[in-house]
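$ fold --in a.seq
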Amino acid sequence: MPVTDITTDPENLTMTLVADFAAPADRLWRAFTEPEQLERFWGPPGWPSTFTEFDFTVGGRARYHMTSPQGEKSRGSWEFLKIEPEATFEVLDSFVDEDGSPTEGFPPMRMVFTFTSTAGGSRMVNTSHFVSVEALEQSVAMGAVEGSRMAMDQLDAVLQDLREYAQGKGTRTELLDDQHVRITRLIEGPRDLVWRAHHEPELLQRWLLGPDGWQMVECEVGDTYRYVWQQGDDESTRFGFEGETVLSEPTRRAVTTEKMIGMEGPGTLNDLQLYEENGATLLTLLIEYPSRELRDMILATGMTEGMEASYARLEATVIAA
């Protein structure tokens, strides 16, 4: 994990994050100063950012919003106070409303980003300056420490060439905490086709099958969905999942609920995000489980291996066609 230290200092009213990366400093600088790259990591998993304005000049402003899986938006604004190319920049960071006006009760903070070369690559230091101890404590209480760590931990995928980062690694499963699992898989194909493959029944039934020998015998999609599989002609093996669409941002993001048909109790929340680079698509699936116990039970079924079989089939039978 790139974050090596996060320190809060009530006496000096600061919070400082230090992170080290294998990439050179100029590459790290571009990740923080180009909005299309910032959108990939500025926000913890499940709260990706969208930058609607980015005037990277002293006195210029950037505006963005982070969107939760349920569609809730948290809006922010940067005013650029100082820029020293490839070395440092400083912003006044504010919570804002839909019109861009500062949100009452949330004082702005001054953030300083510095970038230096190291023997192994580069280091980023982000120091946030608060107006009072109360403002610092408010930020910490809102999850700033852990949220910042999780956001920066997404940067490795941004700094590397997408194929270099993911090619040959297959489907990867990461345990983020007791309730969240992140699945990643590189798909050799354009994002719009990967999106269609997740939303059109005739395509879904060609790849979303798990291990060989299974077939999807029911496939209903829309605001609600229902998938049912069986092994060969044996109807006694039938099982399925159903759910509803919570958020849809074609062709970038889709959030759905998921529950095994006939099972009592809460299900999962599945946050699918797609990012394309040079004709390849990085598929990220963030799964929120209602408990650690259910998470472990589902992972123990061989979920990752089944997903890899399906994603490999997606490339071979859908994208290649």
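$ fold --in b.seq
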Amino acid sequence: MVLVAVVAVAATTVASWRRPQLGAVEGRLRPCPDSPNCVSSFEDRPSHRTEPFEVHGDPKTAVSRLVRQIDAMPGTNVVEVTDDYAHIEFVTPVLRYVDDVELLHDGASEQIHVRSASRVGRSDLGANRRRVEIIRSQWKESLEAAAVD
């Protein structure tokens, strides 16, 4: 029984290492699946909806500033950064599952959209939503600190 559980966890972990198809499509991040392990600022469904990040200051450097902040968090791996898009992986400490966080700067609205999703499984017990809210809180603090300077 223990061996079956170990094999199942190992298989799930290995499956989470495969990168899903990500990126912007027609100016939007991809929709969340029906499973409750994803949040996105492009979603209308309340169970998957989160707010985008507000941009203050130089919009051309907003994504890179936010990525630097996120990169200081434990378990991160910055995969891709452009002027308006970023993909960051988060690896859980024990089971080594991988979650993907994407950022997309919307120059028209001066917002950075966000999507955070687990690669495997159905439920993440709210981990992606909590992660986005931690990032949001740190982002607001950094904006407030910059405004004081």
